[in-house]
Amino acid sequence: MPPVTNRTRYKFGTFEANSASGELLRQGVRVKLQEQPFRFLVLLLERAGEVVSREELRSRLWPEDTFVEFDNSLNVAVGKLRDALRDDAETPRFIETVPRRGYRFLAEVASPDSGEVPAIAMDAPPEGVSSVNVRHRLPWILLAILCAGLVAVVALPVVTRRFASPILNNSDRVVLADFQNGTGDPVFDGTLLPAFRLKLEESPYFTVVSQASLLKTIKSQGKATDAPISIDSARSACRSLSAKAVVRGAIFRAANGYRITVEARRCSDGKTLVSEEAQAPLPADVLQNLGQATASLRRRLGEPTESVTHFDTPLAQATTTSLAALKAFSLGEEKRAQGQDYETASYYKMAVDLDPQFALAYGRLGAIYVNAQEFELGKQYYQKAFDLREHTTERERLYLMTHYYSGVTGELDKTLQAYEIWRQLYPNDLVAANNLADIFIVLGEPDKAIEPARDAVRISPKNAFPYVGLMGAYMRSGHFAEAKETYQQAVALKVDGFLLHVLRFDIAFAENDEPEMQRQRDWARGNPREGEMLDAEGTAAFARGRAGEARSLFHQAAAVAVKNNLTEYAALVTLDEAQDEVELGLVRESKEDAHAALRLAPNSNDVQTWAAVVLARTGEVREAEELASRVSKAEPLDTLTSRMELPAERALIDLDRKDPEGALRELEITKPYDLSRATALMNIYLRGVAYLDARRPQEAASEFQKVLDHGGVAPNSPYVAMSQLGLARAYAQTGDKASARHHYEEFFSLWKNADSAVPVMHSARTEYARLSGGP
Fold this sequence. Notes:
Blueprint: E1 9-12, E2 15-18, E3 23-26, E4 29-31, H1 35-46, E5 51-53, H2 54-61, H3 70-85, E6 95-98, E7 102-105, H4 134-147, H5 149-163, E8 173-182, H6 192-201, E9 207-208, H7 211-220, H8 231-238, E10 245-254, E11 257-266, E12 272-280, H9 286-301, H10 305-310, H11 315-318, H12 323-337, H13 345-354, H14 359-371, H15 375-387, H16 394-409, H17 412-425, H18 430-442, H19 446-459, H20 464-476, H21 480-492, H22 498-510, H23 514-524, H24 530-543, H25 547-563, H26 567-583, H27 587-600, H28 605-617, H29 621-634, H30 639-656, H31 660-668, H32 682-693, H33 697-709, H34 718-734, H35 737-750, H36 759-771
Parallel strand pairs: 8-9, 8-10
Antiparallel strand pairs: 1-2, 2-3, 3-4, 5-7, 6-7, 10-11, 11-12
Helix pairs in contact: 1-3, 6-9, 6-12, 12-13, 13-14, 14-15, 14-16, 15-16, 16-17, 17-18, 18-19, 18-20, 19-20, 20-21, 20-22, 21-22, 22-23, 22-24, 24-25, 24-26, 24-34, 25-26, 26-27, 26-28, 27-28, 28-29, 28-30, 29-30, 30-31, 30-32, 31-32, 32-33, 32-34, 33-34, 34-35, 35-36
């Protein structure tokens, strides 16, 4: 290997790279570039003019034990670097791909420190000529052109096409109109649209607007959405959706079988930008030829050939070889886009009955049941989809992997890594950005969720889910003003989602804004998802000691869930009630509700986990241990179970056995996840209780204060008010009566309307009276 230069600054064309500061400048202005692509650039600059092999790149930049797949990671780095340098893989000025070998930096490189002056960068070197030595070859090139004028004239159209600007850029959006069936054969009615969409979405180069967003926009324009989306309807929605082109397909009978056409039209005037055509002799050939035509369309729209080649899974492999199964799947996709999520299950079930190898249909079924909080059934379908994940596109494979890791094994570290790869490969993909933000929130890192959540809003500003993610990230990071601003932004854009209102209720509760809480209650009444608002209201009532009101709200929420056949969700609502009851000292009621939840969903691992936590808190140690053992065997890899929930259950058993130090050892495991949405501040609070029991009041006070400082993680959690009481008890242990009285009074203020019979309130008043010199 040649020696590596010790320079730190490199100048080429209008760019300058500083390896010491990690900066890339263009005409003095900093260019945004991530660390790995920048390191890749520096390595190429060190070896300008030479081929840097893939093996050397792997050893220098991607260690053997890295989780990220090397090929994907390298492709991402090359793509990001070319974007930053405004380079083109087809006609490179800077970075040349040397097939099956590696990469070479083409332009001359100078050092600003030494006064060297680089050559003026050409737009692109002639084919087969490296621009490293382009100044020495120019006379010969000119002579060749003069001596072969006819050849130059003939070649000119080809060169013009190669240098033409791409029709679409990698930040552009397209909308998808209906796929016309001109064959008269009903098997093609609506069947090819989801396959066509899948092939377009496989591209990381441009973004396909979701069908749900398109239908919502068309509906807002007063047009019918129960008919196929015509080219005119799609075009009229383009401006609202910030799209640049409308893409559509069609299939017709032909003398030798079927003729398939795909085309893209400019949104502004309907002018055809590009079109492709393919022939299919038999129905069984249609999917293969549609895939090939779509790949050609993507290339002609401007997607680099390297990208099209890499992201080009055969359609039959990506979906199904059965047109009947694909038709059933398409019916499910159509209804799902119209917001009928749970109702689509029968179509996807029909699809997998017709083709038991249809991975994506299993994945859709998994999502449907998990979204409906029927986790065990959802896990079964996710498992099947994951087992068949090679039978789909790279993007959909990432979709199945992330949902498998999060929904089946519960390995949130792998889920996080897979979403990060997905986001690198598909930087304009809503799902990757939105779900990455959500994983950060579940892992207890809400600050890290803000950036991908903002990006999700940028990608899809007319979709409710990104606003939910961003609002939740702001709220849980304690940025209530920004969270409320996000809510108002969504309302102003008429983007609505049920969880936006639940989050707004939570913030209003934290700020004691009763009028706003009432507005959100009123909005939710009669909604099919009203149970979620009732659950939030019940938790809030418990957080203020109003046990009777809270129990009534929880019962209503569970009844709504049962009415909608969501028995597992009803069980989880009942466990929410049981957990709040035990914190208020209502032990008998808590046990009853824990057992009621187990009867509702006896096979749910989530229900068993939280029942174990509740029963351990009530002193039912043996039953809690049995449940925990069962769950631990069923979900050995689950991050929530093994790192957050079961350690809390074991800590509660230690507290019941008067072993606070043992409880603290168990709760040490949970520290990295203290701010997780899943545990809602419980583990921090329990750590404070354990320190109190261990007569370590200063450390107890620190934990209770941490709950108060991060109340935005779960604004209506009972642990917020209970931490005021915990602080009072901690200061009482230290002998600081003034501080203790202050925190007792803060607790009484929060619980001013609490039920008088609540045991915790009675204990607190007795302690306060004793502290103040009473009996």
